Amino acid sequence: MLDGLKRVAGRIADKAGRLHGVTAQDRALMARIRAQNLTYLSDKKLASLVSTARAIEEAGLPGSFMEAGCALGGSAILLASVKSNERPLEVYDVFGMIPAPTQDDTPDVHERYQIILHGESVGIGGDLYYGYQRDLYETVQRNFASFGIRLEPQSVSLIKGLVQDTLQPRGPVALAHVDVDWYEPVMTCLERVFPQLVVGGSIILDDYHDWGGCRKATDEFLRRVMGSFTLDDRAGSLKITKVDLRH
After folding, report:
1. Cβ(231)–Cβ(5) under 8 Å?
2. What residues contact 57, with CB distance under 8 A and at least 6 apart?
3. In this predicted model, what pLDDT tens digit does every residue of 142-153 receive, in sequence order?
4. Which of 16, 36, 100, 132 is the most buried (most CB within 10 A)?
5. Which of 68, 60, 59, 65 lies closest to 88, judged by CA?
6. What is the pTM of this model?
7. Helix or strand or coil: residue 58?
8. H or E element at residue 53
């Protein structure tokens, strides 16, 4: 499906594989996040996220940053470190056990959920799986603090609950990192964020190539908005960038 979308999406990024905009400081921060077992994202995915955030900052695009599904907070810490203190970063998560998939999800999703549900999932580097932690909200707060990030002074909000209940962007959005795995929360994020996404802003879907529910929701949504976006999946995630329909 992705190849078909690319043929009609408009200007698609080339496949050179280069990830621009990642500084030595970014790489050091990424290494520290990984050393503390705070992210499941590959180095390429982290680099894509930070380079996109930096490009948005440098271009002066308006709008908030968002993350849906933060796990232990690694990628959100990266975003908070790159953005200006004035730009809001809203981090949405249930901060607990991942919600159950629905009938719209694919068999791979249901198989994975059963492993999690039965206590058989292993965390990063053999750590306790984050969904089994007693108070994940407090853990994520501590993780932010350990990187010197002060939530309120740096305009970072941790918002607890299902994205279906909590995510309602009312202003422009410049960047949304969506890492909520299953069909329903991914579709919710796309339907609510894309209309608020500024031209030049991006939604990065971490799980497009990993979970069938995410891929199914994304393909269905993108068919509705053909011609208004470009796609880039060089990093292993899927970056959807909004374009001006007048051009």
Report:
1. yes
2. 82, 83, 84, 87
3. 999 999 999 999
4. 36
5. 65
6. 0.92
7. helix
8. helix 43-59
Residue 119, both tokens: 């206590």
Burial, 180: exposed, middle or buried (Cβ in 10 Å; 0-12, 13-18, 19+)?
A: buried
Buried b (16+ CB within 10 A) or exposed e, 2-26: eeebeeebbeeeeeeeebebbeeeb
CA atoms within 13 A on the CB side of 152: 0
Distance separating alpha carbons of residues 60 and 30, to the nearest angstrom: 24
Question: Residue 4 pLDDT > 60, yes or no?
Answer: no
User: How do residues 23-79 score in pLDDT, each as one tens digit?
Assistant: 899 999 999 999 999 999 999 999 999 999 999 999 999 999 999 999 999 999 999
Q: What angle do CA 241, 161, 123 make, to 5 degrees?
A: 80
Question: Which CA distances in Å does 119 have to 113, 145, 184, 189?
Answer: 10, 29, 23, 28
Q: Which two tokens stand for residue 204?
A: 């990065």
Phi, psi of 192 (to 5 degrees): -95, -30
